[in-house]
Design a protein that fits this description.
By secondary structure, the protein is of the alpha/beta class. Keywords: Membrane, Transmembrane, Transmembrane helix.
């Protein structure tokens, strides 16, 4: 998913914890934390009853093993009667919660540029408190913007595109378009020029809505854009439009968001509202191969997913605050924010680069977004939670002493409690350890987080447990795709298991069908296994202007149910929860007939302390696999210092034979601990010093590997590894 925050952003989080533990209460705290709660917890130990979360059902289509959510026998389509479209949902939510705060943005105070010792320049920002629009004010603003688009001359029947980082104006423009039944094309702010041109020309967009930072990029490709007539930009303090940009856009009308809103206020237009089957969004994914594909999402798809998810988040409502910082052009974040809107939650916008007090772009001594908002809910992709976890554990390790021992004891006791008795998980022992050890850790994210919604990729069990214990948050781990508007499976908040993505959401069925070639069968014991199919109200119409690909992965059964063939391999646990265990495209047959799952091996190797990113490569003409690895700079430099390795810079360190040997040996230990077979352990590796980012085009906005792009860029390195 999108942007992520480096481990350096957590550098100061334990300071007050370290200071506090040196006081007189440390020994007494340990005694209380160990003796009394243990005795009390033992009294409540017992065999936990398995809660049934999914129910097996008979459905149409291809034979398989199907499940639905236990909550209702009929699939959920709307949150309440009459809310069948995004336009209706937005209007009704805004009326219902008219006086509650809705969309918040931080006041910009100042910007300064600092220069590091190596000459690199860093921008540091200072923001004030959040400033809010109420639900009622947001509805008026979106309605005015819709009227403004009509007055501006937006061509009826043509889409508008939003090409911007997440912010309140993004969501307002999005909702405004639906007041005039305008289809919205969503495009990642990090998308490259060729993909951007392709997306805008393929959909014949007439109005492009963007943030002011994107204007230069649009001006540079203006001669290649076929259908654009209007540019609407979000204003930012400190950013001005230079004459070269204005000149390149001389054939288009160029207006600010505020100007279009004012235009609509002065000339209100009668709304033209959509139906549930109309296409609301054409969402361009930052796919792993070739040009991005545009997924056609109906109003009904969005409403069904959001309505279903609201039933799975306990006590969600106006007392909650949601921290929005992931890309709204990604289905995961968009689905989350619509869910918040349904429930009357306030949404405060931030950035991955300004998330915490010690984030890369936050001026020292000022508040990050989480400290300013103090959210109760947030979404995260696993890579972000992994980096938070790594930063915390590294800092604990560096401080050592009693602080490290106390943290270790507390962590182990909490782990034992969570995996043991219910009382131990949430009773007196939890309160004690939270007060003694984990309170300061939680201040990183504002101190009030109760639920983290996680999606976009598999979450490791270690990181999930860290989030439960150190952040004190339940983890709602979800599974879905753009093609199902994120609506597939979602774990329930009282489910303390790891590695699973929960039962089907109430708007969808999930069915497994046998994949004979890969050896995954619905008759497998102890759990049925197979390719994951998703059916129901969340399943989208298909790919824009790509009927061949649509027909390949979408099928309609004899009952009219639409199914999407995901290509993922899953298994159902006895309680009806899904676990994703493989992916058809990631499976390669080696020279001697062994099958290797690249994703499975990569997930295992990511737990190695030296690994920040990894791509495993397997060739059918060889009997072994190899790996490209971006190492953790801090971990590698710490090792080099301890081992007395001399080097000129980080790239030089990565090339040294001793370094490669050290990482290779560590990978072997990690692979053994993960029970990988010998042929699954990379026989050779290449260490690459530069990180893989969405901007480099080597990973998606959700930080998934772009395997084909990586193979192309490092073709020579891969050839040498097999040489």
């Amino acid at each position: 998913m999108g942007d992520s925050e480096g481990s350096g952003s957590n550098s100061a989080f334990l300071q007050s914890f370290i200071q506090g533990e040196k006081g007189y209460g440390a020994v007494g705290a340990i005694f209380l934390g160990l003796l009394i709660p243990v005795l009390l917890s033992m009294a409540f130990l017992g065999k936990k009853k398995i809660k049934q979360r999914g129910v097996q059902v008979e459905v149409g289509g291809e034979p398989g093993f199907a499940m639905r959510n236990r909550r209702s026998s009929e699939l959920m389509e709307v949150p309440w009667e009459g809310a069948t479209t995004m336009a209706a949902l937005f209007e009704q939510s805004c009326k219902k919660h008219a006086h509650e705060r809705f969309l918040g943005s931080r006041k910009f105070i100042s910007k300064e540029v600092t220069t590091a010792k190596d000459g690199r320049k860093f921008e540091k920002l200072h923001f004030g408190e959040y400033e809010w629009k109420t639900y009622g004010e947001a509805f008026v603003c979106a309605s005015n913007f819709a009227s403004g688009l009509v007055k501006l001359g937006h061509s009826a029947g043509t889409p508008a595109a939003i090409f911007s980082e997440s912010r309140s104006e993004w969501f307002l423009a999005f909702q405004g378009c639906f007041r005039q039944n305008i289809t919205v094309v969503t495009i990642y702010a990090s998308l490259g020029e060729d993909a951007l041109i392709h997306s805008l020309n393929e959909t014949q967009v007439s109005t492009l809505i963007c943030d002011s930072k994107q204007l230069k990029k649009i001006a540079a490709i203006s001669s290649s854009l076929e259908s654009i007539k209007h540019i609407v930009y979000f204003e930012d303090e400190g950013i001005t439009i230079d004459s070269d940009v204005s000149s390149a856009m001389s054939n288009w009308t160029l207006s600010s968001f505020a100007e279009v809103e004012k235009l609509g206020k002065e000339s209100p237009a009668h709304p033209k509202l959509p139906s549930k089957s109309d296409v609301s969004v054409i969402m361009y994914t930052s796919g792993s191969t070739g040009f991005p594909k545009g997924v056609m999402i109906t109003h009904g798809n969005i409403v069904a997913t959001a309505a279903a998810v609201t039933t799975l988040i306990p006590k969600i409502g106006r007392n909650d605050a949601y921290l929005a910082y992931l890309p709204l052009a990604h289905v995961f974040e968009l689905a989350a924010e619509v869910t918040m809107m349904i429930s009357g939650v306030s949404i405060g916008y931030g950035s991955a680069l300004t998330l915490t007090d010690s984030s890369n772009k936050i001026k020292k001594g000022t508040l990050g977004d989480a400290s300013a908002l103090k959210p109760t809910l947030m979404a995260a992709v696993p890579a972000i939670l992994d980096r938070v976890r790594d930063g915390v554990l590294k800092k604990v390790d560096e401080n050592g002493g009693l602080a490290k021992k106390l943290f270790s004891v507390g962590y182990k006791r909490r782990m034992a409690a969570i995996e043991g008795s219910w009382f131990g998980a949430w009773g007196l022992e939890k309160l004690l350890w939270d007060a003694i050890v984990f309170k300061q850790v939680r201040s990183i994210l504002g101190g009030r987080i109760r639920i983290i919604l996680c999606g976009g990729a598999p979450l490791s069990s270690d990181t999930q447990r860290f989030t439960n214990i150190c952040m004190g948050a339940a983890v709602g781990q979800g599974y879905g795709l753009t093609e199902t508007f994120a609506g597939a499976a979602f774990s329930e908040m009282d489910d303390l298991s790891v590695g699973r993505v929960g039962p089907p959401v109430p708007c969808s069925y999930i069915k497994l069908i046998s994949w004979d070639e890969g050896g995954y069968l619905i008759t497998d014991k102890p759990m049925p296994r197979g390719e994951v199919l998703i059916g129901g109200f969340s399943v989208t119409l298909g790919y824009f202007k790509n009927e061949e690909k649509t027909n390949e992965v979408y099928k309609v059964d004899e009952k009219g149910m639409r199914w999407f063939y995901t290509g993922d391999i899953g298994q159902f646990h006895p309680d009806g929860c899904l676990e994703i265990i493989d992916r058809k495209k990631d499976i390669v047959k080696l020279q001697h007939g062994e099958y290797i799952s690249l994703g499975k091996v990569e997930a295992a190797l990511l737990s190695c302390n030296y690994v920040e990113s990894v791509m495993v490569h397997a060739d059918p003409f060889h009997s072994y696999c190899v790996a490209l690895i971006v190492p953790s700079r801090q971990a590698l430099e710490n090792w080099a210092q301890g081992a007395g390795i001399e080097y000129s810079d980080f790239p030089d360190l990565c090339q040294k034979k001793e370094t490669v040997t050290e990482v290779q040996q560590s990978l072997s230990k990690t692979a053994k601990a993960s029970r990988l077979d010998k042929f699954e352990v990379p026989a050779k590796i290449k260490l690459l010093p530069d990180p893989w980012t969405p901007e480099s085009g080597l990973v998606t906005a959700a930080l998934k590997l772009k395997r084909e792009q990586l193979k192309a860029k490092f073709k020579e390195d891969l050839l040498k590894l097999y040489g």
